[in-house]
Design a protein that fits this description.
The protein has 482 residues and is mainly α. The chain has one domain. The protein contains 23 helices and no strands. The protein is globular, with a radius of gyration of 23 Å.
Length: 482
């Protein structure tokens, strides 16, 4: 198909090109970024402790905390590796990939392709960030196959923008789910959220007061419009694009075009190429999932990384049909997890230092000391973004930060549900300049963080002031406490 005549290069595209050139020159690999973050946090932790004890004692405690924390994310590391693998397994099944192909066929120009992937990445992330991460990556690869003149860096960066904008405002947002689920936080934290006069009964904040506030939904819509438009004008035209071919990346055949696997008829292969064992697994795992959600007092509380991964694996087994097809899909997805395995332990050490040396309290106290009722939401968004650069937790660190954020919200008479949304908006911004959550898709793309961070940094520069204005202005429309 002949592509329409390309439009002239705009100012945003030139700015994005400069940022990308700068990132390619100066941004290190994501592993080096994690090592640099480790240096900064270790020095900050040592500086805090040395003011309270001897140099030797402070150094020993820092080393001990880091070493003990290094392996604390091993279960989470495997969970995240399985998010990548099971998401890819589902996305490469023929039924799901037909949907991806249909969506990829919509855009036929390089700029429209980049904007379309960004739009779908953000919309899908509102429903579930884990699925969005892999679905958007597969969509970007298929778009690159169908629009070979698209800039590969820009379209791959677009696939990540759901996690850099609105994911935590959606149905899989960790903080909102924790606040709405009574058993997910300790009683001491619930007591703080409830307030001295039990202004928030039981310390439980329903989803209607967080992600389903009209203010939160408005932020989602605005961010989708702004980021989609930004990526359209920031994407290079065909004449200036750096394509997948220029990177030496072979996108290969679409899964729909790949030759079907067939056994040679030996007894062992008969089991591999027949659906009988797959059917048994689907019935067993499906029965467990149905029972888990049916017997849970709150079905949302049963939705976690374990049930999500098992659900995706079960769906993948069902849609692939035979063990042979499933094994091939898993084998092809596995190379994408090496960065997660290498780097997550480093971030576990960082998180342990920040929490156990009480750096998080020091940072939170600093922001609260500067706050008024009007400025508190913006300062919490900044605080969340800053901390998110060093502890990219996907919302799980809310259990640590909630006591300080919510206690101050009570003191300043700010809507507590809105502060959950504000915290999430700030944390998402950190993902645009922190390659931690890029690792799963970078492995699938065959790129490094420096290749896409020129575009994500541009989005960060545009979204940050927009988010600060939105959280400040919309906070004035909300009562205290809910």
């Amino acid at each position: 198909m002949t592509e329409p005549a390309e439009q002239p290069e705009g100012a945003l595209a030139r700015v994005a090109a400069r940022f990308t050139g700068w990132a390619e020159r100066w941004i290190p690999d994501a592993f080096v970024f994690a090592l640099l973050a480790t240096v900064i946090v270790v020095l900050a932790s040592f500086g805090k402790l040395v003011s309270e004890r001897s140099v030797a004692s402070a150094a020993n405690e820092v080393v001990t905390i880091w070493g003990q924390g290094f392996w604390e994310l091993i279960p989470f590391t495997l969970q995240m590796a399985l998010v990548i693998i099971t998401g890819s397994v589902v996305a490469t099944t023929r039924p799901v990939y037909r949907l991806i192909v249909a969506l990829a066929s919509v855009a036929i120009t390089p700029r429209a392709a980049v904007a379309w992937v960004a739009f779908l990445a953000m919309v899908s992330s509102w429903f579930n960030w884990g699925f969005s991460l892999i679905f958007s990556a597969m969509l970007a690869r298929e778009v690159a196959r169908r629009v070979p003149s698209v800039d590969y860096r820009a379209v791959c960066a677009s696939a990540f923008l759901g996690l850099g904008s609105i994911w935590a405002q959606g149905l899989s947002g960790s903080a909102a789910l924790q606040m709405a689920t009574p058993a997910s936080l300790q009683p001491a934290i619930r007591s703080i959220v409830a307030g001295a006069s039990n202004q928030v009964p039981g310390g439980v904040i329903p989803l209607t007061s967080t992600i389903f506030l009209w203010q939160s939904l408005l932020c989602v819509v605005i961010e989708i419009i702004v980021v989609t438009t930004l990526m359209y004008f920031a994407a290079p035209t065909a004449s200036r694009a750096k394509t997948a071919q220029m990177f030496g990346i072979d996108l290969g055949l679409s899964p729909l075009d790949a030759e079907a696997l067939r056994g040679r008829g030996t007894p062992g292969e008969w089991l591999e190429y027949r659906p009988h064992l797959s059917v048994f697994f689907v019935l067993l795992a499906g029965g467990y999932l149905v029972s888990t959600f049916a017997t849970s007092a709150d079905p949302l509380n049963a939705l976690n990384l374990n049930t999500l991964n098992l659900g995706f694996l079960t769906l993948g087994v069902a849609l692939h049909g035979t063990p042979a097809r499933l094994m091939r899909a898993v084998k092809e997805a596995t190379p994408g997890v090496w960065g997660v395995i290498l780097q997550f332990p480093l971030y576990a050490g960082l998180a342990a230092l920040i929490v156990k040396t009480h750096l998080n309290e020091t940072i939170a106290g600093f922001f609260v000391s500067l706050s008024t009722r009007e400025t508190y939401p913006a300062l919490v968004a900044i605080y969340s973004a800053v901390l998110g650069v060093f502890v990219p937790s996907g919302g799980s660190k809310w259990v640590i930060e909630a006591p300080y954020v919510m206690a101050a919200a009570h003191d300043l008479k700010v809507h507590l549900g809105w502060m959950v949304a504000v915290y999430d908006l700030g944390e998402a911004l950190a993902n645009l300049v922190q390659p931690f959550w890029m690792l799963p898709v970078l492995g699938l793309f065959g790129l490094k963080a420096r290749d896409v961070m020129g575009y994500t940094f541009l989005v960060f520069l545009v979204l940050t002031p927009l988010v600060l204005v939105l959280v400040t202005v919309l906070s004035l429309t909300l009562p205290y406490p809910l």
